Amino acid sequence: MKKLALCLLLSLTACGGSREFSRASFNGPLQCAPYARSRTGLQLSGAAASWWRQSAGHYARSHSPTPGSVLVFRATSRVPSGHVSIVRKQISSRTILVDHANWEPGRIDRNVPITDVSPDHDWTLVRVWWAPIHGLGRRAYPAYGFVSASGPDDAS
To answer: Where in this chain does the record put each Peptidase C51 domain (predicted)?
Structure first.
């Protein structure tokens, strides 16, 4: 179990997209930020967690998911560079399906459920599907909200 946790932590540090990794490295070249940038056209770079700050005044920010928007995870000790996921579809007021890279080491995952568990129902705390256990992960991850190339900016 400790090995799995360490592997997950190490793999998620690659989400920043600001460093190059060789194919021989543990993380490989697949990272969440470059993947999201290539799929959405958002011109944001660097650590995934910095996308929220960078997007202010340039892109719409919201606490409501819309298809094509990007959920921006905060940096934590478990996810030091943060993480970004692309909203594919909203299933209910508290569940979305996303596509993202490197949540599971070295993989692109599609149609992954993420559930809002925030007390104010504002998508600032989420649980993410973890395929190895075939269910939502036990941990909740803090998030800033959603960034998109269009729509009103209703978040601060």
So the answer is: 7-127
